Input
Amino acid sequence: MSTRPGLDIGTRPRHLPDRLTGRVARALRSWELLLLLVGIAIFAANSMASPYFLSAWNLSDATFNFTEKAMIAFAMALLIISGEIDLSVAGIIALASTTMGFALQYGAGTPMLVLIGLGTGLLCGALNGTLVTRMGLPSIVVTIGTMSLFRGISYIVLGDQAFSGYPVGFAVFGQGYVAWVITVELAIFAALALIFGVLLHATKFGRQVFVIGNNPTAAAFSGVRVARVKMILFLLTGLMAGLAAICLTSRLGSTRPSIAQGWELEIVTMVVLGGVSILGGAGSILGVVLAALVMGMVTFGLGLLNVPGIVMSIFIGALLIGVIAIPRLIALARRRAA
Amino acid sequence: MTRLLKSRELVLSGAILALILLVESRFRGFAAPGNLAAVFNDTSVLIILALGQMAVILTKCIDLSVAANLALTGMVVATLNAAMPGLPVGLLILLAIGLGLVLGAFNGLLVWLLDIPPIVVTLGTLTIYRGLVFVVSGGEWINSFEMSASFTALPRATLLGLPVLSWVAIAVIALAWLLIRLTPLGRAFYATGGNPHAAVYTGIDVGRTRFMAFVLSGGLAGLCGYLWVSRYAVAYTDVALGFELDVVAACVIGGISIAGGVGSVGGAVLGALFLGVIKNALPVAGISPFWQLAISGAAIIIAVAFNARAERRPGRVILKRKEATA
Output
């Protein structure tokens, strides 16, 4: 099962190609192209299966299936590439939505609500980041704990009650349109895709994230401030969860403690489906964007066919395991054949 | 003496005792033997699941699908019972354990053969199993009047003053202790989690050991599926929703290190009892049950911080990782 690098030296001639695989060849064999083809296939299947699918307004509505989750997925992608994970994001949404609702009772206006939502997200991210980077605790367990803690606080505040009556101006985030069928959320999604794409693929910070994910010890020895970068990533993930909480609360117009239940799973699925290695060190924002579109279309298509939500979650779970299992199964079969 | 003070079991026992006395001082009768037995009975399912989870965590894995496994097996046996009341309960229990084993084996195979991180596997199977409950039931509830009398009576029947449910938990504790302390497989759990590389060199099949841990956890979850559904005499899609967190919390509180290789049967049982006492004390003290989720979450964080501190002990590296030596 385990390979032993080094033992092969001398027994087998090493093959060193004159140049790396060309750009076109690499693009043709990439995960992103595969995702794009899958996306097109699902799009075609959906348009044939339901006459209501191919309508600009329906498709515009369909984007709500992924925009809020994708906002968090971008930050989560960076976090997973760095070798950590945050399972508390849905809990952060619940808590941020609750603090906004709480502030609403004291007459907070729209700008204040937005500040409170983002601030709560940042604070939650800071707690996760501190526990992981300062105390050296494993992020999986820490965020399983904070996931219950954050949502638990919402339950303490709200119980079986709900906050509602958000101001009219607040509705713009989840219900507004920028132009024609382009929703405000879709515009935020596109802007964030660009920002995170540049951050991960074109900045020093992005390089550092990859280095940490591939080898944290080597990263530390080459001068990367590992704890600081990870802390920033946890803060960023918290901030995005706060933003998603604003959009979701604005769209639903109310806050219940069960808001966004189970989203952490869908967000991690989106990231992994986007080709980000769950072990860290590899991935791209383009992949996450495509995965978001694919997942959004699958859910919307199944919804048009009257498939209940919980059955869709079977598809999501199978997708999560399938995208990781299939390449490994193929590799296993090849090794058996060789 | 310091070793005794540092013993997780002793500290936890003290904490549980203090908690019971605190509640007793304000509300007479909580520490009465009858009530404590009821608390134990109420915690039985958590204890059983925590013991299965412990085996998985010892091997450096995690099983988040236990609650969904419980719900699915519970729904399947309840549906069978409602459709064919003539089937003997013993057969249904065997079926529940068998189905649980299969569901656990599915997790284990993905971890063993495909080397997929256990957290990803069980997050995936968590939703799949939970979704299948809906598919099996069609979203319908199975209520007590649809279940046969013998199906619901068994966990509540008393034997020597304790309900059968409690006796099952006691039997599982005893068997788990035997398995962990006296069998090669039990040793292999510790070795696999403590140092997978060293385990390989001592001839332990790490992948197979992990598979066995998942099978064990799945089988116990299946058993709990029957116990849960028959005890509460109702089966529906959201049975035990989120209960996997309580199970992980019980293990972490019980001093089972999430990094693998450290933990004891006593710790897991005490961790579960600690949560059980809190859960039963809340309504007595007039605190809303909505506090429970936040308390479990805080308990997980505090416990994992404690564990990390306890594990940070000076030591020498005597066996380097084989990647480093190559």
Q: What stands out?
A: Chain A touches chain B through 52 residues (CB under 8 Å).
